[in-house]
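Hi Y.,

Following your request, here is the sequence exactly as I used it, all 481 residues.
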Amino acid sequence: MKKYSIILISLVLLFPLISHAEGIDKEKLKAEIKAELKKELATQFREEIKAELKADMLKDQQKGVETVKAKEVVMKKDGLWVGDKVKFTGQARVRPEVRRNLTQSIPNVVASTEEDLSVLLRNRFGLFFKPTDHVSFLVQGQDSRDFGEETAASPLAVGDDEGIDLHQGYIDITEIGRNPLMIRAGRQEVKLGEERLVGAVDWSNVGRSLDGALISYQPENWGLTALAFVTNKTPTNTGDGQYFGGIYGTWKKFPSGVLDGYYFVLQDNNGATGAAAGTGDTLSVHTLGTRIASKFKNGIDVGVEGAAQLGKFGSNSVLAFAGHGALGYTFDANWKPRLGFEYNYATGDNSTTARYTKFNNLFPTNHNKYGMMDLTPWSNMHDGAFIFSIKPGKFNASTGYHLLAVDKNDSAGDTFAGFYAGGAGLGKIAGHEIDIQGKWIMNEYFEVGAGYGHFIPGPFLTDQGITEHSDFLYVSTQAQF
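Below is the corresponding structure, written out as tokens. Let me know if you'd prefer a different format.
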């Protein structure tokens, strides 16, 4: 078609010369050229219209695809997505627990009590919305209760039935300045390292979330997190309250694992308690520590964490320590049998000095770290453990033994399980715990678990008249999306 157009244009340009030639019907030639021009222009016009119509149709189809995509509902591992901006998350967990000679508290306390059955229910539902590439927010509600308990506990009380509450509600600003920098502000779960000092306590029927802000910078080889939270606020404007903050750094390229270092500060203006009560009205604790976790190709894994605390507790200075060491070997078999040994230690207080030396466990997840029965925090304790585990397919199971002891046992502030006070002439061995646990992860949406623990009192407790053995049994089912 372009060839004929060129010919016609040439004829039009040459027409004045051709018209002077003899023997040519000028009017007829002129009419023929006009007719061909009209025909050619009409053909080109039709092609242009067709191309424009085709482009418009493609645009409409693309808009239709985008509209369908925006409304598409997709179940993914991390939630139920509506398009790429809205996500719903949910969790329902039911856990019956049976106790014998064991109270329902945190930590648990061994005592001569009747058998007790509790059925714990926890439901969570969250809405995540990402209106832009760099801004998003999450709102997550929670209902936690013990079957038969209709009255919610005080939000500050330790328990399993808090009723309906806001578990998380925060805003994220991500990739600030095109860097791996994020700011999160609001109520949020915080998990650092193995959660020995800062954790979300997912085992608890209520869990833990903190109110404040977190800034995280996470390049490829290292990471740095800064945090500041209000952990307890008095209702009056007196300046009292409890505040927590710090910095947590990670070297991600440490040989076969990670190397962490951290600094935390806890400032409590609500009044000193415990051994320093009456000597002042504030608690200020500075915690410095480091953590190593490595898993090598030869099957050996190593874990080490140590922390020191300085500060003031009333008029007393603070100097306390805590340590964790773990060594394990995973055999080369399909069901991944692992044999592990652990030792955990945290100082208690020496009541004969003006220095307070009991380690402060801060805001940890202690469950399953010093025994499944949760009898002691990482404070005034020794724990020597042997653990054997297997992971065949989607099932994992473990059995373990813990020898639990107190570090200091000569004063009322030297407690075990946060309850039994020390005193002159008491033994140091708190007892022996034997645990068996198992979990079947059917898929990413459903799992079932069960566990049994048995505790045998040692001299620290038998010297105080606690001689009966304790038992703890649970079965847990959890569905989530």
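Helices lie at 2-18, 26-71, 459-462.

Thanks again,
Q.
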